Amino acid sequence: MRIQAAILRDPAKPFVIEDVELDEPGLGEVLVRVVGAGMCHTDVLYRMFPELAMPMVFGHEGSGVVEAVGPGVTRVKPGDHVVMSYDSCGWCAQCLAGTPPYCDEFMARNVSGLRIDGTTGTTDLAGEQVAARWFGQSSFATHAIATERNVVAVDAALPLETLGPLGCGLQTGAGSVLIAMGVRPASSIAVFGTGAVGLAAVMAARVAGAAEIIAVDLHPARRELALELGATRAIDGADPDLAGAVGQVDYSFDTTGVPAVMSTAVGVLRPGGLCGLVGAGGGELTLQPELCAGRNVRYILEGEAVPQLFIPQLITLWEQGRFPFERLIRTYRLDQINDAERDSADGTTIKPVLLPGA
């Protein structure tokens, strides 16, 4: 079928909107009409990696309506409303242990842009293959092919265009706090970087009952929003004595991926404390043995969440007013994708959401 998609043909150039041909869903696959698609840092980080298969359709926080299912699909049917998340195999030791973010095939299924067999199922009008399985979906398009494992059915009465970011960024921030790090009531946590992932962590820390929630960011508006969403203190990330300003905490959480900031996040831990890292960036992280004595550092993928379990929990918290993630969102038409990328990069918008049907 012919659809429209935002394609990145050159990592140094803007996205372009093109018509492409999308195959029908195959074994275990689901065709989704995309209603909303969050833009995450991961969708643009790979401009730094020209070795990726190009041209590519990115987008890995989609929500939409199932239009067709392939052979073997039993959990969803045409007409179902779904949120799309990351893909996993379902049968490796990590998947069977309930930690699918560490699936043996995670990289192949999520960051290659290809099916596990190396095909794409998508071509441009010249017949050239287009990589269109980014995180098992490539949702910067009017339609996406996902798998039964990476779609989560949701109530049709919910505002579907708002739910897409639950599939990755918000799941990562909240899951890291509530699942991977297991933040305890009455504890303290410092969150470094209050974009969408960091603010999800702030809201989740409040849900967890943390007594002190410290938000660290360079943007004054984001620090103010963090205070409104549950932070008890907000600190300018440019403070020359940042560690001193934060003090000692039980937990720290870095979303920046900046080695100097990650080192500070480890350094503010009390002995026995836990630092969660999720930021993807450049450079090497060097930790001094005396800095880590009695402290724990953990790199976390997808909040260690099982989407089919955790996304409904986040929706329940949102319905209760305890996870107001809609306050992070600004919407854009699909043909405004380059505006969305610019606004995300300069901090104007915390969580851009593309509306392919608008």
TrEMBL record:
Ranges of residues in domain Enoyl reductase (ER): 10-354
Cofactor: Zn(2+)
Single GO MF descriptor: oxidoreductase activity
Keyword annotations from UniProtKB, A to Z: Metal-binding, Oxidoreductase, Zinc
InterPro entries: ADH-like_C, ADH-like_N, ADH_Zn_CS, ER, GroES-like_sf, NAD(P)-bd_dom_sf
Presence of keyword Zinc: yes
PROSITE patterns, per database record: ADH_ZINC
A UniProt-annotated Pfam family: ADH_zinc_N
Similarity field: Belongs to the zinc-containing alcohol dehydrogenase family.
Protein name, as recorded: NAD(P)-dependent alcohol dehydrogenase
Native organism taxonomy: Bacteria, Bacillati, Actinomycetota, Actinomycetes, Streptosporangiales
